[in-house]
Design a protein that fits this description.
With 345 residues, the chain is mainly beta. The protein has a single domain, classed as YVTN repeat-like/Quinoprotein amine dehydrogenase (Methylamine Dehydrogenase, Chain H, 7 Propeller), CATH 2.130.10.10. The protein is 6% helix and 43% strand. The radius of gyration is 21 Å and the shape is globular. The termini are far apart.
Length: 345
């Protein structure tokens, strides 16, 4: 509760000087997500552990729906919220992840948010023995999550302990898999928008790692020499991703051009007083936005050499589309995957 008041601002790139919408809140805002089908609806997570839905169509500065202690709000800050497809009764719902170790589903029924605990992150082997034979189970701290683009029940959860859990919406008692991913907190985890097996993670341990979710060791590891606050896949290429680090730099990689280092590393803010915390690609235009610790949002345009497309040869049409993007990344993964015979040995 020390963080005090929060603010939710919505900007247009046409007018960066003044926001289109302004909402103030009693607690700091940690995360938000627009609904795909109803973009005027926003799910928001707060520092005090509560979640809310704002409706931009309504002329009010207060959220339309809000969670409370009695309705199952989190006990720690909410780090991420994500809208899901409607449930069987066609009710709107979204998920939230928090430091209290709970992954919660929030369903909008009539005029209230109804919560369901999907999973609790337990830290293996950390049941503390107390006098009188009491055991206290320690819970893991969730920091980020992402849902699979095609397999509706499958999602990943990153934790403060450095583990990544592969979970199912249908199993609340057990994980599908656990990746010993990082030595420090997992700051972000993201499925690739094209390849159904691939995800990326970044951590305060300075690394970005690319994984095949069927293999327990990473395919690619990048050391960025500083804590990595966020990572994002590009929407236009399966092999392009960007990351931001605590020294104020933004890094853009394209694995199909260079598998070993970034195509571009740019100083965005001065590192002595500030650090970058978030990065996101625009889904249509070659623009990325970066957030920093001082409350600034910086928009950057990707230069043409950072978004190179295959050149058309005379008389030949360059193939485009999801299949081409999947094949491009699969070709790179095959270079680093162990042959089946060796893996069995």
């Amino acid at each position: 509760m020390k963080q005090g008041q929060g603010m939710l601002l919505l900007y247009s790139l046409k007018n960066p000087c003044f926001p289109e919408y302004v909402f103030s809140s009693e607690s700091g805002i940690m995360c938000l997500d627009f609904h795909n089908d109803y973009p005027y609806l926003m799910a928001v997570g707060f520092y005090d552990g509560s979640v809310a839905i704002y409706n931009l169509k309504k002329a009010t500065s207060q959220p339309t729906y809000n969670s409370s202690t009695s309705s199952g709000k989190h006990m720690e800050p909410v780090w991420q919220v994500k809208w899901q497809s409607n449930d069987l009764c066609n009710n709107l719902n979204f998920f939230s992840v928090s430091s209290d170790g709970r992954i919660v589903s929030w369903t909008l029924i009539k005029n209230k948010l109804v919560h369901t605990d999907i999973i609790k992150l337990s830290v293996e082997g950390t049941a503390v023995q107390w006098p009188e034979r009491l055991q206290l189970q320690m819970f893991g701290c969730g920091t980020s999550f992402d849902f699979h683009k095609k397999i509706d029940y499958l999602f990943l959860v990153g934790t403060e302990e450095g583990k990544i859990y592969k979970c199912s919406k249908y199993y609340s008692r057990q994980f599908l898999d656990v990746f010993e991913a990082h030595h420090m907190a997992v700051d972000s985890v993201r499925w690739n928008p094209y390849h159904l097996k691939v995800f990326i993670s970044c951590s305060s341990d300075w690394t970005v790692k690319i994984w095949d979710h069927t293999i327990k060791t990473p395919m690619f590891v990048y050391d960025l020499s500083c804590a990595v606050g966020d990572v994002a896949w590009s929407p236009y290429s399966s092999t392009v991703f960007a990351a931001v680090t605590a020294d104020g730099k933004a890094h853009v990689f394209d694995l199909s051009i260079n598998k070993y280092e970034a195509l571009c590393t740019q100083q965005v803010v001065t590192k002595k007083k500030n650090k970058l915390t978030h990065i996101q690609f625009n889904p249509v235009y070659p623009v990325i936005i970066v957030g920093d610790e001082q409350g600034h949002v910086i928009s950057l345009k990707l230069s043409p050499n950072l978004r190179k497309m295959p050149k058309e040869k005379k008389g030949q049409k360059v193939k485009k589309g999801p299949e081409v993007e999947i094949a491009k990344l699969e070709k790179l993964l095959n270079l680093v995957r162990e042959p089946e015979g060796k893996a069995e040995e």
